Amino acid sequence: MGTGRSTVGAVLLERIGAQAAVLTELDDAVRADEPDAVHRMRVASRRLRSALRTYRRLFAPGATDELVAELRWLGSALGRARDREVLGERLVARARKLPAVCGPERVAAELDQWARAEYRRVRPEVVAALDGPRRRALAEGLAVLLADPPLRGRAGRAAAPELARVAERERRRTARRVRRALAGGPGQDEALHEARKAAKRARYAGETALPVGGAAAERYVERLKAVQDVLGEHQDAVVAAAALGAQADGTGEPFGYGVLYGQELAAGAAARERLPAVWRRAAKGGPVRFG
To answer: Would you tell me which of 10, 96, 158, 233 could form a disulfide with 271, CB atoms 3.0–4.6 Å apart?
Structure first.
């Protein structure tokens, strides 16, 4: 068995502790609606949930189930506000680049007004979540886990090979979803979204290994992030196109909205075309090895 940071359990607890600290540090910033605070807290909650799910076999059976569920709840509460924030920024920026015949400033102003109203509508959900008993219970649960971690014997295994094994498993999981998505057919958009979630989870597994994984872990994270990014661009385009379709009715600038809609369809298609090459780079080489 390894000792100190050389055990997989020690590396995992270091990751969980760091992300739990980020959650705590961001509470006041999110309440104050500081720039990017909601996004950073959402990412921290996702990283925590991913760590607890991906490495659940290192813990006693069922020991992390409640924390995973509560982190999913927190991420969802934060996500509604963040998604509207991202969507608004994307649409307004693209609208301002429309040709003059489309009335770019008018379209941008309408979309900005709509996005701000949507954000104000869901913003109270974020504050209510942070001020409620579930958020306090989540913080306490994470503190208890870190103070007295219910680790199993396998958590004492050497870190680098165990983390590499998990990263390889997550990469294979992502591969299955990417192949399914690239097969096309009905439901392809949802299949691509599921592939994105798998790539994100694999990337987070690689991030956990960074303290001991060396350059190999850095390459792994970089390549999986590239897959996540191209799939994220596709998902953003799908969501933006749907929002434009819903907003176009009754607007004073239907032509501008139509052009934007076409641009989002093209952005989604371009992301799908880039995916095979990006995935080949992420999948090349033999089994993952760290250290």
So the answer is: 233
